Amino acid sequence: MLYTIKKIGLMAVTATVMVVGGTAVSAAAGDSAYDLKKNEWPHAGPFGTFDKAALQRGLQVYKEVCSSCHSLKMVAFRNLTDLGYSVDEVKAFAAEYEFPAGLDDEGEVKYRKGLPQDYFPSPFGSEEEARESNNGALPPDFSLLGKSREHLSMFTPWNSIYGEDYIVGILTTYHEEAPHGVEMAEGMYFNEAFSGNQIAMAPPLFDELVEYADGTEATKEQMAKDVATFMYWAAEPKMEERKKMGLKVIIYMTLLTILLYFVNKRVWKRVKKGEDLV
Questions:
Q1: What pTM value is reported for the model?
Q2: Regarding the domain with residue range 2-75+119-237, which homologous superfamily does it belong to in the CATH classification?
Q3: Among 82, 103, 107, 165, which has the highest number of CB atoms less than 10 A from its own CB?
Q4: How far apart are CA 66 and CA 234, in angstroms?
Q5: Coil, strand or helix at 95
Q6: How far is CA 204 from CA 25, 78, 96, in A?
Q7: DSSP-assigned letter for residue 44
Q8: Nearest CA to 79 among 275, 235, 253?
Q9: Mean pLDDT for each 10-residue chunk of the chain (278 residues)?
């Protein structure tokens, strides 16, 4: 009888965890009926590392496609060395941008070339300008967006949603026309993964929209995965260092635990024999 009660209780807990996990995944997917596709990410997991080639391609997609609307205000050019670029390459990249440098003798704003210590500039001068250019919507900053939709479930890891999966879903599930019976607001686009399925951003990616420097075929899906990887790096650029430090801490704590076990065993062995510990 007791075994039956325990079994029923365990089944109830399992069912609850699965329901809660499924609900959280649905929320992470933006409260949409669309089921986000789970992708394999090299940087996922406790030992994952960033794919440097994917990061560089993602930066290229951001620069050539996304940067016209989305800022990256928390990332400095000098951070791009983490992507595998040399210091000289970073300097050349930064020099492609211009920044205000005070006023000249005639009272006009003068500009200077970007430096590695500068941060990516915003494409708009103000929030009002940004909204006016995007059908009233404010394009989000890309600095932390890669982790804003992340849901990692301890009890249902098969249902875990990564922020990259959500980004890929957004970028690849536009419909040319809304499904029958769905009334779209003016200037909005139907997107399966977006909350409410109506999004102000026009479809940003098309096959062969960019020409990758490394020769990779620039399909819509490939570009979506690359820019999602880049956005995740932007949100957590020290991820690899954190994982390495975590591994060292685990090894240290394991060795310390073993040492303390034998010390404890030796001390209590003497206590049990009635020996003087001093």
A1: 0.79
A2: Cytochrome c-like domain (1.10.760.10)
A3: 165
A4: 14
A5: coil
A6: 25, 27, 23
A7: -
A8: 235
A9: 40 36 39 74 91 98 97 97 96 96 87 96 93 89 87 51 87 93 92 92 95 96 97 94 92 95 84 64
And the tokens for 158? 């098969």
Parse the chain into domains and list their residue ranges: 2-75+119-237, 238-278
**Contact call for residues 142 and 70 (beta carbons, < 8 A):** yes
Give me the residues paired with residue 112 across strands: 99
Alpha helices per DSSP H over the chain: 2-28, 52-64, 87-94, 127-132, 145-148, 163-172, 220-235, 239-272
Which amino acid does the sequence have at 131?
A: R
DSSP 171-202: HH-EESSPPTTPPPPTT-EEESSSGGGEESSP
d(CA 72, CA 56): 15
